[in-house]
Design a protein that fits this description.
The complex is a heterotrimer of chains A (639), B (381) and C (327). Chain A is α+β, with helices and mostly antiparallel strands. Chain A has 22 helices and 26 strands. In chain A, the strands form 8 sheets. Chain A has a 6-stranded mixed β-sheet. In chain A, strands 2-14-12-11 form a 4-stranded mixed β-sheet. In chain A, β5 and β6 form a beta hairpin. In chain A, α14 runs antiparallel to α17 and α21 runs antiparallel to α22. Chain B is of the alpha+beta class and 381 residues long. Chain B has 2 domains: 220 residues, MetI-like fold (Orthogonal Bundle), CATH 1.10.3720.10; 108 residues, no CATH class. In chain B, α6 runs parallel beside α9. Helices cover 59% and strands 14% of the residues of chain B. In chain C, 76% of the residues lie in helices and 1% in strands. Chain C has 14 helices and 2 strands, in the order ααααββαααααααααα. In chain C, strands 1-2 form a two-stranded antiparallel sheet. Chain C starts with a helix and ends in a 7-residue tail after the last helix. Classes of the chains: A alpha+beta (639), B alpha+beta (381), C mainly alpha (327). Chains in contact: A-B, A-C, B-C.
Chain lengths: 639, 381, 327
């Protein structure tokens, strides 16, 4: 029994779409030339029957110009993912409040939120002009997602409480995602970055690299020096979007607003040209994107990006440069570079967290860290305001790891408990756990030796963690705790914490806003690449035959969060999530330090339709769904 | 020779008494003193090592102490006179307190010296407690504000409000000792392998030459990076420091070994060596008693020239992020911290101060080595 | 002479072999592998993507024992000229490196020229006019060149170029020429940029060579043959160039081989700061993310060229100075 429950905004969008059809569509002059030269089909044939009418930010724009950015020589694929990559079946509204139609023009949800039926746009095309239909989604589902050789582990977006999704084609423009059990958070998940999968695999192009469709696959494998078998070949051609692979294959058709013509890493500049088949138009019927192309100049050092910005060689960017430490220098050169600032709501649950290992392999350390009094003592010993003043120019507030003020889930006690800087109080709590001290004033562990925690720290996110760690170690020393600092690089740090081979480390954590529902990684023990504070419990949570059985309170958290995922309505989800947060706050898993103020990005003075403030988060790959509606006033870059 | 200080020649009686009996060392010294810049550099280097040894005494502040009021505070001048209310001037060695204005929008602090608020300065003042030479507990410092609660940044402060002068002084200990330890390692390895190679010749020589050739044909940076990345994380910073030192010293010994070998090759045919061998001296005795003294001066010169190379190597390692780690402070880590556009624009002293220090010390060491090399051959002229 | 060359050429083989083994060990020394680096990069989304990492583990043949990987790599190189795959670029190493090697050599050669052009005359002057004001000035600037760390000089010069000349910074050509084919204008633009890295990398080398030239010439200047020639009334300039300078040139020739790895090493840091399309940043990046075949091949090629360079300079030296042949 399917009950149609359309969102109100959806109806209005369709209404505008209908209105849009009343007058003729327009296209970029560049494309019009190609049409008249006969190298491109006319616009009406390229657009779907019902294009998505974008609600632009300032107003309809004009065509022209190149959006110039910079990219690091390696490992910076998210630079492209977050500007031109993320464009999924559904998208988040620019204020990150609701899920809106995108590639799918509408959807129906079953009453129990277990079945999702998506209606695609008739006549929609890939960037090479081939039709995009339900068959492409089925190709992803049948030949990639359920193929255990290609996908040994499945992305969590498409795994519901009862297991992986079942996708069925209803007709050419209708597909059904069936989870077999309530999965109320699925639409949200699909709108986030990793929801890209179903619409990223053009069957007409990729099937030639797939064993099932190409009997003579070996010939292609032999011709490709970087591949040893068909699976390697397929991965090369159809790599995941958040790896370099995706951005190294310009031949792969996409549904993105700009299509890659110069691959990442091949030359000094990555170039993406306008996709003439893009399915979005503005309210005047002008086909998006307005901007002709997007370029990423390859640089080796973040400092060079800054200099380029000062020189006016960057049109729109927040990545790498939007850090408090750069604000003064960027302000000084704003006139020279002809750019201004916009706010970026990069507001995680906490930007600096002492992740102490609750599942330490050493039973002595585990007992101490596992004692809530110890963590409370550590928390009271931290002079958070000094850290904020010294490192972030006062742009932040002392806080625990918790939802941010302004988000639906915010409660003051989550954020503010134990954040008061009070060494006497800290000593009082610590004396309950580690009363003995040695001659130098350091506390002794239960084994009679000095109790030492080695903190791993890497210089990541531009947040000056190594500096912060020196301050933190100083505060710890003041209450008799020996915190040792080991500075390392990001990949080594991740390798150590994911193998549970660590005492403690400094990191940030998502889940400060709406993403708390889907990435509660600091409230519920989760297996994750970025956060480990109870890895063994997390493993148990996934599969009780692995890991280690957690205490009852943690089991309750697992159980309640499972209910959040299966809840059907937003009201139920919120009530249950609040329970999870209540319990997590009571357990006090991690010691948070700072919740930051919004950061910033720069845009040249004639760039319009810039989302301001722009929310971004670990999974919210913004501004990608909204880059297409940006334009240059005057139709060209400022000189 | 106008370069000779006439007074010293007259006053020192030995020089007059028996010039013909001067040993090689005295001859070398006499020659060395003629190289005035080298002579001067000797004192500079001596002073630098003294600073390294007595670091805390010279440092006006605790080099790790942060200050929320002083991030990127500019260098404060030293003033001699204060103006009284009636306009008269009075001698008072002082610095001026900094007034801070905060520009929240641009996230910047403006500092202005306030002539109304002098901070008296003095010598042998009380400051943070420390142990002189790791032994004697004291809290006296050579120079600084008389009131220990006041803070003066003679060379400015870094992003955490730490005193740069104190950090440079404390960094001297690490940087200069890396040079020394590195050279010591080079000396032992270089002289033994070079000596063996040159004295025995034949297949041993061949083997060692190939080894040197091999080591020199691997580009150093990747070699360092690989080795440095292999340092286990749980090592305390001090052990990492020694490993870094040894890695750095690897660049030094090959050159030395080649020089020593060359010397051995040319000397082993000399008459005095042949005579010694005929006298029945063992190889080891010949090397120790005759060969090494005959080119010791050259080795000293080479070593002096190797020290600055190692200091610079350490800065390169730090730049690549694979050298020393905080809280250890070296000149390299100071430069690394200042290696960004923000610093050049907002706080150039963070780059200039350690940069100048490195340049001066490396210059002094090079001049010293140069002078020693010139002097090492006292019979050249 | 032929025997000498042959003997020296034969010595090369074990050296290169050793270099290849040590290179391979060095790049494997740091714990972890490329996929760990990739996982770290992807970790920025804050969610678990071990799914993708596991999917790719097989992709790169990681997890085989080291000697097997070495064997495959070596046989590939020797039999097919195949240096393996760059994990990060997903291209054969040979496709990635030649362009960049070209730039590296162009810059190295220019640097070498720059060094010689500066060091030779100054070194000679410095030796002939020992302890004169000119000598002191030359020595001083020479040592300053030695004393300023390369990366510091690079950053400061870049900032000056940006601040006072309004030049686009980083790279070898301005952004507007990046995609353009070669033209006169692009070449001029290249010249505007390339002198900076050449100067930065060259200063320390030039300073060192000034010192060597001066010292060597000083050794020769007071030899009896010079005195004899002078006594016979030869003009000072002719005398200088004909004999002592020629002898003092030996170290220039013998350093040709060594100078290459020094320049490549010096260039790594400068290229990162100045954003040059050379092997430096590529190598640094490859070492950081453990893109091992790329890193290994780059080190191997540079080492190999060094060994060849050494051979050439030895042969040249033996040809210039026959005494060496029989040592």
């Amino acid at each position: 029994m399917l009950h149609s429950r359309k969102l109100t905004s959806l109806a209005s969008v369709i209404a505008i779409a209908m209105a849009g059809q009343a007058f003729a569509y327009e296209e970029a002059p560049q494309l019009a030339q190609q049409v008249s030269a006969g190298t491109l089909p006319p616009l009406e044939e390229r657009l779907p029957a019902e294009p998505l009418v974008m609600d632009v930010i300032d107003g309809p724009g004009e065509y022209g110009g190149t959006l110039r950015r910079a990219i690091l020589g390696g490992g910076d694929q998210h630079n492209m993912v977050r500007t031109i990559g993320s464009d999924n079946m559904v998208r988040w509204s620019p204020d990150w409040k609701e899920v809106r139609p995108n590639i799918a023009k509408s959807w129906d949800v079953s009453d129990d939120a277990s079945k999702f039926t998506f209606h695609l746009r008739e006549g929609m095309k890939w960037s090479d002009g081939a039709p995009f239909t339900a068959d492409d989604i089925m190709f992803w589902y049948e030949d990639i997602f359920t193929n255990t050789e290609l996908t040994p582990n499945k992305d969590s977006t498409f795994i519901g409480p009862a297991g992986p999704v079942k996708v069925t084609k209803i007709d050419d423009v209708t597909v059904e995602f069936d989870f077999g059990a309530p999965n109320g958070l699925f639409l949200q998940a699909l709108a986030y970055g990793f929801g890209y999968h179903p619409t990223a695999y053009p069957k007409h192009y990729l099937s030639q690299f797939h064993e099932t469709y190409n009997a003579d696959i070996q010939a292609l494998v032999d011709a490709e020096p970087a591949a040893g078998d068909w699976k390697q070949l397929f991965n090369l051609k159809a790599g995941p979007m958040d790896t370099p692979l995706f951005w190294q294959n310009p031949d792969r058709p996409t549904l993105h607003a700009w299509h890659l013509t110069n691959a990442y890493g091949a030359t000094d500049r990555v170039v993406a040209e306008r996709n003439p088949y893009y399915y979005k138009v503005d309210s005047q019927g002008q086909q998006l994107p307005y901007i002709d192309r997007v370029t990423y100049d390859q640089v080796e050092d973040v400092e060079t990006i800054l200099l380029k910005a000062f020189n006016g060689e960057i049109d729109y960017m927040l990545r790498h440069i939007g850090r408090p430490s750069n604000k003064a220098a960027l302000t000084d050169n704003a006139e020279r570079g002809k750019y201004g600032f916009f706010d970026v709501g990069d507001l995680p649950a906490n930007i600096m967290i002492l992740m102490m290992n609750l599942n330490h392999t050493d039973p002595m350390k585990r007992d101490v860290i596992g004692n809530k009094d110890f963590r409370i003592g550590v928390s009271h010993a931290m002079n958070r305001q000094e850290v904020i003043d010294l490192l972030y120019f006062g742009a932040g507030s002392p806080a625990q790891t918790a939802p941010r003020e302004g988000s639906d889930l915010y409660k003051e006690e989550y954020a503010k408990q134990f954040t008061e800087y009070d060494t006497d109080l800290a000593n009082e709590y610590l004396d309950k756990v580690l009363p003995e001290k040695d001659a130098e004033g350091f506390r002794l562990g239960p084994d009679g030796e000095r109790f030492t925690l080695v903190f791993l720290v890497a210089d990541v996110f531009g947040l000056q963690y190594p500096d912060a760690m020196e301050l933190i170690a100083g505060y710890a020393r003041d209450v008799g705790l020996d915190f040792q600092i080991r500075t390392t690089d990001r990949s080594r740090l991740i390798e150590l914490h994911t193998s549970n081979d660590f005492d403690a480390y400094l990191w940030n954590c998502s889940g400060g806003q709406a993403d708390a529902y889907l990435t509660p990684i600091c409230y519920v023990p989760t297996i994750s690449n970025s956060v480990s504070w109870a890895r063994e419990w997390a493993a148990w949570g996934v599969d009780p035959s692995t890991g280690e059985e957690p205490p009852q309170a943690v089991k309750d958290i697992f159980a309640t969060y499972a209910k959040v995922r299966s809840a059907g309505t937003p009201e139920e989800q919120k009530a249950l999530m609040q329970q999870v947060l209540d319990m997590a706050a009571e357990e006090f898993f991690t010691v948070g330090m700072v919740q930051n103020d919004p950061v910033f990005g720069i845009a040249r003075n004639n760039v319009r339709n810039v989302p301001d403030p722009l929310p971004i988060a670990g999974q919210l790959w913004f501004p990608a769904p909204y880059t297409a509606q940006m334009y240059f006033e005057g139709g060209a870059n400022l000189p | 020779m106008t370069a000779i200080d006439p007074a010293s020649d007259v006053i020192v009686p030995e020089a007059v008494k028996a010039p013909a009996l001067l040993g090689p060392w005295a001859l070398m010294w006499r020659q060395f003193r003629r190289h005035k810049i080298a002579h001067f550099s000797l004192y500079v280097v001596g002073l630098v090592y003294l600073v390294a040894l007595l670091g805390e005494f010279f440092a006006p502040a605790d080099h790790l102490a942060t200050n929320t009021r002083a991030p990127f505070a500019p260098p404060q001048g030293i003033h001699l006179f204060v103006e009284n209310g009636d306009g008269s001037r009075e001698f008072l060695l002082h610095a001026r307190a900094l007034k801070v204005e905060v520009d929240r929008e641009a996230m910047r602090r403006h500092f202005v010296e306030d002539p109304e608020k002098p901070i008296p300065l003095g010598f042998f003042v009380k400051g943070h407690p420390y142990k002189l030479l790791w032994l004697i507990p004291t809290d006296r410092h050579l120079f600084g504000p008389i009131d220990p609660k006041q803070k003066v940044y003679f060379l400015g402060a870094d992003r955490l409000g730490r005193d740069i002068l104190s950090r440079i002084i404390m960094g001297t200990r690490i940087s200069m000792s890396i040079g020394l330890v590195g050279v010591a390692v080079s000396l032992v390895v270089g002289v033994s392998l070079g000596g063996i190679s040159g004295y025995y010749g034949g297949w041993i020589d061949n083997l060692i030459q190939r080894l040197i050739e091999f080591l020199r044909s691997v580009p150093t940076i990747p070699l360092w990076m690989g080795l440095a990345a292999a340092i286990p994380l749980d090592w305390p910073p001090l052990r990492t420091y020694f490993v870094v030192t040894i890695i750095v010293s690897m660049i030094g010994w090959t050159t030395l070994a080649r020089e020593v070998r060359g010397k051995f090759l040319s000397l082993r045919k000399e008459d005095f060596v042949v005579a010694a061998r005929l006298d029945g001296l063992s190889d080891w005795e010949i090397i120790r008693k005759h060969l090494v003294p005959s080119f010791a001066s050259h080795i000293i010169a080479s070593l002096t020239l190797a020290v600055p190379l190692m200091i610079l190597a350490e800065t390169s390692l730090s730049f690549l992020g694979i050298g020393l780690q905080p809280p250890i402070v070296s000149w390299g880590t100071l430069l690394k911290e200042a290696q960004n556009i923000r610093t050049i624009i907002e706080a150039p002293w963070l780059l200039i101060a350690p940069g100048t220090t490195i340049v001066i010390v490396v210059l002094a060491l090079n001049f010293l080595g140069d002078g020693l090399r010139d002097a090492a051959d006292p019979y050249a002229n | 002479m032929g025997g000498f060359i042959l003997r020296r050429a034969l010595y090369m083989i074990p050296t290169v072999f050793l270099v290849s083994i040590v290179t391979f060990i060095i790049i494997q020394l740091p714990p972890g592998d490329y996929l760990d680096s990739l996982a770290a990069e992807m970790g920025e989304s804050g969610v678990d993507n071990t799914a993708v990492v596991e999917q790719l583990r097989e992709q790169y043949g990681l997890g085989q024992p080291m000697y097997l990987q070495y064997w495959k790599w070596m046989t590939g190189i020797l039999l097919e000229g195949d240096f393996g795959i760059s994990f990060e670029k997903n291209l054969p190493v040979t496709d990635v490196i030649w362009d960049r090697l070209g730039w590296t050599f162009a810059i190295s050669l220019l640097t070498l020229l720059f060094i010689w052009m500066v060091a030779l005359p100054i070194g000679i002057y410095s030796a002939v006019r020992k302890y004169s004001v000119g000598d002191y000035v030359a020595t001083f600037f020479g040592f300053v060149g030695l004393a300023v760390p390369n990366f510091l000089l690079a950053l400061v010069m870049m900032y000056v170029a940006f601040r006072y000349f309004g030049q686009s910074v980083g790279g070898l050509v301005s952004p507007e020429y990046l995609d353009q084919p070669w033209s006169g204008a692009k070449f001029v633009d290249l010249l505007k940029h390339i002198w900076m890295p050449v100067f930065v990398v060259g200063t320390s080398g030039a300073a060192a060579l000034i010192r060597i030239m001066r010292a060597n010439l000083l050794d020769e200047l007071y030899r009896p043959y010079v005195v004899t020639a002078r006594a016979k009334g030869m003009s000072e300039f002719q005398l200088l160039l004909r004999y002592p300078v020629r002898v003092a040139l030996n170290p220039f020739i013998s350093t040709i081989g060594w100078i290459l790895p020094t320049l490549v090493s010096g260039e790594i840091i400068v290229a990162v700061v100045m954003n040059l399309p050379t092997t430096g940043p590529l190598l640094l990046r490859a070492l950081l993310v453990q893109d091992m075949y790329l890193a290994g091949s780059l080190i191997l090629i540079v080492s190999l060229l060094t060994v060849i360079g050494t051979l050439l300079s030895d042969v040249l030296l033996a040809w210039v100075d026959p005494r060496i042949r029989y040592q």
